[in-house]
């Protein structure tokens, strides 16, 4: 085997230009496939990042009626839906893939919050003790909400940086008193979410969706929610999965558990916002076109294989006397067969390696020129090299069989 490999490299090196031209079809085909696969993978990862946004592995679970989200800011209290208890949340934390869970009340827009004469028009949340940890928040200044705040029904608030800017205009908010729906709340801290990657804004709808959060959020203890709003309002739930890949299954399991435990009747149900499913749907839209491109690139591999077969037939013709001599001194047909198969495989293996290198370089070049995301797939590179070698074996089989079946007397007479 090693002798055959050595002879193969010797043959390639002795006809460098011819060997390179033979490999060119393989190089182009493999390079095209690696470039396309790298772009597909990079685009899919970008789609996933765009939708998941902050990268905190969280899934929001909303109350739905007949498949549509319920907006408690404008709708009456839903019949047959009770409050989510700590026992319900404890049961969800035991579900597979769930790291933490929190339930909170929400108003996406409030117009009853003031600091002096300055009005605030952002979001107001009534949160439990798990909200900040489940949503990956850190306290920037002051403190967060403590157990005593919930036990003693303290009217305290924690503000996001955007809410601080909107209300205090550069002042230190800690210790200041804001008015929330006619009730005084003391600001005890500021908090911000730890962001791994920002959502990418690609169109006007993305802009409005993202900019709706620009006024920030004010957080108060959920035990104080009933002071200014209705009693027994159903909450929104956020589940933090142990990993990104478990978001879909953990979110669905938690939504199903809530629906079964909290809701009576079939009108309402809790439903998880499956961002990974949305990402998968967007990815599949581009996958069909990309698969067609891969098949087109595969034609280059077919052409390259035919080129290998052609050059190997030429090689057999050129080396007829050599083959006849080897058979005459005792070489068996199988040895001749393996020698030429090895030479064809080495030729296409080298073409595959050069094609992978060219594909990676081309992918990064296109990324710099066109701004397309790129992610190199190591398995795709390995498969491409293995496939190119297989092409050499397949298309080198006919010339190798021809060489192994040569008549030694006629071969020695060949000019």
Question: Which short descriptors sum up this protein?
Answer:
alpha+beta, 15 helices, 13 strands, elongated, 2 domains
Brief synopsis:
By secondary structure, the chain is an alpha+beta fold. It contains 15 helices and 13 strands.
What does this 3D model show about the protein?
The protein is an alpha+beta fold and 415 residues long. The protein folds into two domains: 2-50 and 283-413, no CATH class; 58-242, no CATH class. It is built from 15 helices and 13 strands. The protein has helices at residues 2-14, 16-52, 86-93, 131-134, 147-151, 161-168, 204-211, 225-228, 247-262, 275-318, 320-328, 333-370, 378-395, 397-404, 408-413; strands at residues 58-65, 68-69, 98-107, 113-115, 118-120, 123-127, 137-142, 156-159, 177-180, 183-193, 217-221, 236-241, 268-272. Strands 1, 2, 3, 4, 5, 6, 7, 8, 9, 10, 11, 12 and 13 form a 13-stranded mixed sheet that branches. α12 (333-370) runs antiparallel to α13 and α12 packs antiparallel against α14.
